[in-house]
Every structure is written in structure tokens, then in C-alpha cells.
Design a protein that fits this description.
- By secondary structure, the protein is an alpha+beta fold.
- The protein has one domain (12-210): Beta-Lactamase (2-Layer Sandwich), CATH 3.30.450.80.
- Helix content is 46%, strand content 12%.
- It contains eight helices and five strands, in the order ααββααβααββαα.
- It has helices at residues 12-23, 29-41, 80-88, 94-100, 108-115, 123-130, 161-181, 191-210, and strands at 47-53, 70-72, 106-107, 135-141, 145-151.
- It has a five-stranded antiparallel sheet with strand order 2-1-5-4-3, with helices on both faces.
- It is globular and about 45 Å long.
């Protein structure tokens, strides 16, 4: 039987260092997600659903593709992605939108309670339930990646605040490695990030002309 809480004697910092060293050695996105899944599932009733690259200039999905925008873990329920992707091209996912603006990971159940969606806005939750996903923990990393864990049980009382911090940190390490292993997409970069070097060059040119 899987324990719902981590033993108090476990040193969270040591756990995170152990995972970070392990994930830095992985050479493919699948290996990164495997490392994250093995590390998390051995300690909590969680599995890794996958990771998705987020686009700052696009409010919702248009044509998400596996291996480019989305990297699924093998534990993702069969058929879930096909149904989710089909709906995501037509409807926004309110839980993902909330997660993008959050500074810390949040569960689907908690998000649903906060926004109280009705009708079609409940589609991500209903699609997931049909495939055995009762709850999920979403981590938005630097607004560039979304790393998602899933569970067959409600997570609100399972994930303590210290464990949420550790999960978010591990998701960040995995996202960093995924960013290193996958081709960067210019659509994932904000205008502000690209404007800064031009601004610096312009200011430098003015200083030269003044002199």
C-alpha cells in the first residue's frame, strides 16, 4: 500500500539534490520524464503525466503536437491525450490558465473549487475523469513549461506544503533539462525578452553619438 505522506525524517533538500544530479544525466525527453516519475512515484501516490512547452504570445492551443509542444510520460492513461488535444484546439483549459499565473503548483481540485467552472468550462476535468485521472498537480515553470503530475485520488490532503515545494523544484529541474534537450521555439519567447538587447544596443549607440 502506498503511503500518502513522506516520513518526517526524509531530508527534502537531500532528496532534491539527488534528483537534480540524476536528471542532469538524462539524454532524451523520455528519459527525463522517466527519472521524474521514478523519483516521485516512489514517495507519493503520484505519476508524471507529462510536460508541455508554453507559448507566451498564444493564449491557448491551436495544434499541439507530441514531441514538439508536448512530451507525455508512459504512465499517461491511454487515449487521454487524443481526447484532450481534440478539445484543446476548440476550448481553453481554465485550469491550465490558472496554473500559468500561479507562483507555486496547484491541484486541479483546488483550482476547480476556486474558479467553480460550469458547463463546457469543466471539460478538462471531465475528460480526465473518463480516463481515470482524479486529480493532478500542475507546475508552471518560468511561464515556459508546464509539468503535470496525476493521481487516481484527491491530492488536497495528500500534498503537504513542504512536499509541494519539493515537487515544484523537481519539476523545475526537469523542465530545465527538457529545455536543454529540445529545440527552442521562438514562439515561446516574449517580445519583452527580445526587446531588451535591442534597447541596450540603442542606448549604447546614443552614448557613442553624444561622445
Amino acid at each position: 500500500m502506498t503511503s500518502n505522506t513522506l516520513p518526517a525524517t526524509i531530508n527534502n533538500v537531500s532528496m532534491l539534490n539527488e534528483f537534480t544530479e540524476r536528471v542532469e544525466m538524462r539524454q532524451t525527453p523520455a528519459d527525463v520524464l522517466d527519472a521524474l516519475h521514478d523519483w516521485v512515484s516512489s514517495k507519493l501516490p503520484l505519476s508524471v503525466l507529462g510536460a508541455a512547452r508554453m507559448y507566451l504570445k498564444k493564449p491557448n492551443w491551436r495544434s499541439p503536437r507530441l514531441g514538439r509542444d508536448v512530451f507525455l510520460h508512459a504512465s499517461a492513461p491511454e487515449g487521454w491525450w487524443d481526447e484532450y488535444a481534440g478539445m484543446a484546439t476548440r476550448q481553453q483549459d481554465p485550469t491550465a490558465m490558472m496554473a500559468k499565473s500561479s507562483l507555486m503548483g496547484c491541484t486541479w481540485t483546488e483550482t476547480m473549487q476556486m474558479i467553480d467552472p460550469v458547463g463546457i468550462d469543466r471539460w478538462p476535468f471531465e475528460v480526465s475523469l473518463r480516463h481515470g485521472i482524479r486529480d493532478a498537480f500542475l507546475c508552471s515553470v518560468a511561464r515556459r513549461w508546464m509539468v503535470v503530475f496525476w493521481s487516481r485520488q484527491v491530492l488536497s490532503n495528500v500534498l503537504t506544503q513542504p512536499m509541494r515545494i519539493v515537487l515544484f523544484a523537481s519539476a523545475s529541474s526537469a523542465a530545465l533539462r527538457l529545455d536543454q534537450l529540445t529545440n527552442p521555439d521562438p514562439r515561446a519567447t516574449s517580445d519583452c525578452a527580445r526587446a531588451w538587447p535591442r534597447h541596450r544596443r540603442s542606448r549604447h549607440a546614443r552614448r557613442r553619438s553624444d561622445s
